[in-house]
Write a structure and sequence with these properties.
The structure is a homodimer of 151-residue chains. With 151 residues, chain A is mostly helical. The first copy, chain A, has helices at 4-23, 31-43, 48-55, 59-71, 93-115, 122-147, and strands at 46-47, 75-79, 87-91. Chain A contains six helices and three strands, in the order ααβααββαα. In chain A, helix 3 crosses helix 4 (59-71). The interface between A and B is large, with 48 and 48 residues.
DNA sequence: TATTGTTATACTCTATAACTATA
DNA sequence: TATAGTTATAGAGTATAACAATA
């Protein structure tokens, strides 16, 4: 049975991607752009360098994503108060509203999924998923450290 | 707690992507190309149209992916026995070997992850994940049918 | 007429390298 | 000298539309 686990996880990946895509169909948003919005929602106003680090992508890439988001009215670039090289990127009011809606929908989706599991098994399943996530994180970190030894 | 569920699932997504990327670093393969190889591994020789349907991407996209894979020696285009418009795409011997290795590694990873869960909870957790996958699948299907009513 | 795959065109995501303005 | 962001260039994934060959 456990050989099926990765297939299940891959299926969940794919399904969540499709579900997300539906959530912002009709907007000029893409998955990557929404990832930027999530970062800003969680961390507040950030420099492009911070966003690049959080998303593990190049600075150039962030420039393009912010260009598109700024153009669509989702974020605004403002002067950094102390570092004149840097800009601060922040969500506009309408983007904050948009993220509030997405967050609510995520919560509803999670509740719907969990409600399918028998009540007395929910805690075990949630703990199991957390365990899997933690182990996977550890494996990926270890692999990264092996390839890229302490600088 | 259940509000964290989606975050866990998103984290698993991201981690599996990174782990996969490591698995074929150094090859000319990308995530999308490997997705094609998986499809061929599971379904055997397929037309490009079948691959496009399985991956839910455009025919043009499949053309490009197959071009790249053919160029790298992973797949081969052969004539369709009965339909002269179509081509059959199939894995080369070396690609079959490559996929065998990937499949074995997937199995090992799944076993490692599952072994972190207390033995007496494994069945419950695996069943819970399967339940979540099924429900998610159903929600996505329903949404697709609502937008795109039976033609 | 409908379908398979390709050509043509375009947008997005991604990266590296060089450059400008600032620290 | 080092860092933040942009310009320049390039590869990859994705889509739609038009077209050729074949069903």
């Amino acid at each position: 049975m456990s050989t099926d686990l990765l297939n299940q996880l891959f299926a969940i990946n794919e399904l969540m991607r499709r579900d997300m895509a539906r959530a912002f169909a009709g907007t000029p948003l893409t998955e990557s752009r929404v990832a930027v919005l999530w970062t800003l929602r969680m961390s507040g106003a950030s420099t492009q360098r911070d966003i690049a680090a959080a998303l593990d992508v190049s600075g150039k890439n962030v420039s393009l994503l912010i260009d598109a988001l700024e153009n669509g009215g989702y974020v605004r670039r403002t002067a950094h108060p102390t570092d004149r090289r840097a800009v601060l990127v922040e969500l506009t009011d309408s983007a904050e509203e948009f993220m509030t809606t997405m967050q609510r929908e995520h919560g509803e989706l999670a509740a719907t999924l969990v409600s399918e599991i028998p009540a007395d098994e929910r805690a075990t399943v949630e703990r199991g998923i957390a365990t899997i996530t933690a182990k996977l994180q550890q494996l990926v970190d270890d692999a990264a450290n092996t390839e890229d030894p302490k600088p």
